[in-house]
Amino acid sequence: MKIRLASASPRRRELLERIRVCVEVSPIIMDESRQPGESPEAQVRRLARAKAEAAREHWGDSPPILAADTVVALADRALGKPRDAAEGIAMLQALGGRSHQVLTAVVLAWDGRLEEALSRTRVWMGAIPRARAEAYWATGEPADKAGAYAIQGLGALFVERIEGSWSGVVGLPLFETAALLAKAGIDPFSERPPP
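Given the sequence above, the corresponding structure tokens read:
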């Protein structure tokens, strides 16, 4: 069974394909700014739901629509995608030598239903000297990543350990996603692999 992914993230598409889910990519572009007084958890839940609802309004919910949003939370501060090199380097240095949470909300819309799940992962990073942050930024990898790092790439070199979902840090927690898909009757173990 095919699903519609309301995201332009190649990482989310790749994760779904790895678990044998056929994906039609249909990105939803919206303002992802944090609202005044909004917690990182409330922000990530609101954005994932808004993406799913916007996709459903545009395409209906057949095939099922999957939407997600990820925020890196440092204390009560939400770190989204950096606007430029200065912000990206500042994010990396703020994350270095301490722990933070990565929150990923996932929403599935199908048959008039809307269900959501939230993944919380604690990530501990070693110190990140400015020169190392600048060199990492120069690779281009952190430019479009929440918190300015990619755990599936060179950013992993900063990560001492995690407690939670590695795939959630990448941008789509597969355990929670599979549970939502099962509610819609999609089981990767019973589906034939995509061509």
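The mean pLDDT is 92. Try to locate this feature in the token string yourself.
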